Amino acid sequence: MAQHDIGLIGLAVMGQNLVLNMANNGYSVGVYNRTQATTDDFVGGLKDRPEDVVHEGTADRVVGYDSVEGLLKDLKSPRRVMIMVKAGGPVDAVIDQLKPLLDPGDIIIDGGNSDYADTNRRYKELKEAGLRFLGTGVSGGEEGALKGPSIMPGGDPEAWPFVKDILQKISAKVGENNDIPCCDWVGEAGAGHYVKMVHNGIEYGDMQLICEAYYILKHALGLSNDELYHVFKDWNESELESYLIEITRDIFTVKDPETGNDLVDQVLDTAKQKGTGKWMSQHALDLGVPTTLITEAVYARCLSAQKDARVRASKVLSGPDGQYQGDKKQFIEDVRQALYASKLVSYAQGYVQLDAAAEEFGWELNNGSIALLWRGGCIIRSRFLQDIKAAFDKEPNLENLLLDDFFKKAIDEAQPSWRRVVAAAVELGLPVPGFAAALSYYDGYRRDRLPANLLQSQRDYFGAHTYERIDKPRGETFHTDWIRERNLS
Known about the structure:
The protein is α/β, with parallel strands linked by helices and about 500 residues long. About 55% of the residues lie in helices and about 10% in strands. It contains 21 helices and ten strands.
């Protein structure tokens, strides 16, 4: 007899914690993993886990299977199967395994970090096969998966009513009564995974900006880790309140048990990446939108990975290496303001790219609702996401967040500090690609005329690429024989 509300395939840590979350919330879950020992260890060890991880009755609501066929036989109709395996080929392999075993109307949910383009393709293929497919972004890491992640579902809208209750029940909750789920319908095809990709891109930008703030305070002011702890503690009680500021604060308190030193100073300065930030930058180039800050954050990770080359270069290349000589307290406040302004630009760029993708793929995205999805459970959760929601509630077709009154006022107030920090970093030889990219974007966006008139003249000169004129209708093009017309004196 069909007994399970949902099945889950893939029992790595994220998969296991989502299963526990579902079962803790009263759902019956059938599980399968390619390696049978993983399934046995997980199910067999449930009753030995702490009560805050496995609630009363949870162990009885989770059943392991040694075959996909056995799992599917015991799922309620329409059958709902969530896949939590590595993105790319492994997801396709599981889908190929499921397709001949499922009935029309059954639902496949990909909860991994899949590329939106793969989700677009899978959605189309499975729709043609009579199956309903959801590409669902899940953010919050291992803890979020267990206690309530941010969930961004997209794909076949006909499937949403059949999974809505489960996904909203296990998601993070916000609001005065803790009753607003950080999960709601995003859009068709790959929209859910696209929004998750943009979330991750903004996460890249946020992390890079925080690291630059830390680097400036450490090297320009010589702050100790204890002093940095207090700085970030204060910042987390300001407009910068967020999950990433909170964990940064805590990092400065951890000692290395092996050496007794602060652990952060023992960590090698080479950053890794899973690819979602890079995907966002790549598609920004395809769309022709200037997602500059996030792209700089990706490049900063790439440069950090060239550790051996940087060590060699440090012995050859020279530049300024002094400390800031001005008012220490004021400079810390300047860095806070620069960080806040740059973060606002990061979100503004992310939403511009979302709008461009929505137009490209015909998605109807609700930007305000997307901000609510990120208010809890996810890595970029922060205080001012409510302000983003308010901005789009006031003007649903807002062209750029920077044009909203709240954000315009915030940028205006932060500008003097922002400019002082970037200038000081340049003079002291401290790399701040995120701060500088954000400020350059802002200055470029606020100018009604940029030097592209010269650039287009160059293109027409050497390649006859034509140009438009300021005194003629847009779209009308012209060409000049620049060599013949030049007047050298």
